[in-house]
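hey can u check if this looks right to u? its 459 residues, i copy pasted from the old doc so theres a chance i mangled smth
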Amino acid sequence: MAINTKIEADQNAPAITQILGAFVAQHPSGGWPAEVEHEAHRTFLNWLGCAVGAAHHEAAWAALRAVQVLEPAPQAAVLGRADRVDVANAALINGITSHTFDFDDTHLKTIIHPAGPVCSAVLALAELTGATGRQVIDAVVIGIDVSCRLGNMMYPHHYDRGWHITGSTGTLGAAAACARLLGLDTEKSIMALGIAASQPVGLREQFGTMTKPLHPGAAAKAGLMSALMAREGFTASRRAIEAPRGFAQVVSTKYDWSEVTGELGSRFEISFNAYKPFACGIVIHPSIDACVQLRAKGVTADNLERLDLRVHSLVLELTGKKEPADGLQGKFSVYHGCAVGLIEGRATEDEYADDVVTRGDVVATRRKVVATIDDSIDEAAVDAVATLKDGRQVHVFVEHAIGSLERPMSDADLEAKFSGMSDAILGADRTRRLLDACWTLGAAGSVRDIVALASAARP
């Protein structure tokens, strides 16, 4: 029996690749409001803390050992360590570490973690070229705008198909950012995007393994190389994103071109970035928040008989692991998140250590959690009812979790989160100086000073 797999293509799509190439090359430096500028610094700071914090995770060690087999030139730093590798592999490894804890930023409309691919590529390249802080901030804002606008264009269909949208759009965002940092003209910026369009990376099947954080790292490396190749004259289709057999129409059945072109250059997607207070999948955050609130109301692991959650179907699709075996799997278990939220009152990276995931009291508590799908509940919400052993019930409804745009983390919250990850790696004094350098990055004469602070491993 013949199977018809033909999908009607849009033959008349606008020139998205060229439009974005012109935006990357021509948008004025600092051409956005002060609040966008501040958000760029918050995004960079949060990304850097995550990358430094995971610098000695086993995933980082494994990736670094693999890279060192190639005997790379010592061009750029591996953050949080004394090691140096070539610029492309620095982008790779720093991209991996920035997402290893699953503690990085989130563009909530698309669930993209935009800083990992973009900042990892930009900082490695900026160290090599001696770029200024101003150039780095410009590249970060523009690169994130490209990746998130492309995400807006395809979400949720592209994600539902199984693509990890952070990696697939991140390659294009990293290419845009690096093209900007290199000062490529419009034509070469178009080529950089075109080259990147043939390199989408990331499958959702990999969630809960080391390969999930590989996705932003691989996107960072591919995007950086796309920009370098374009600079040297390597060519690609000028319609690589929008053509009937181009990126968007191949990887998604939805491609709303207006999401790319609408208010381009006046609305910046980095304005809608959010930051995680909990080191796990974003859809678990409302449930953890609810458990922290229940704990404050006197609910404990000892007096709890049963915890009922009503959640959107996406929560269980992404984080329905009832018996996670290690920390990486725990990050995709709403049951584990609720257990540590109730027992510890938090869910930092410490609560996702392997020995915590398998600890007896944590296992016993997560087995009391019953999650039921109710798609009348928003993805960003949860309805939680704790039934106690004495028969009493305690109810909490979380409409917007801490860390959301409606309840954002403050600058002080971000600093505390950064210190919690970095102090053990760099020491408290160096961490404090690094934080100060992040807040003033846009005025820095060279990024090499901030790299030096962030890359020297503590003895």
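Residues 288 and 337 are 6 Å apart (CA to CA).
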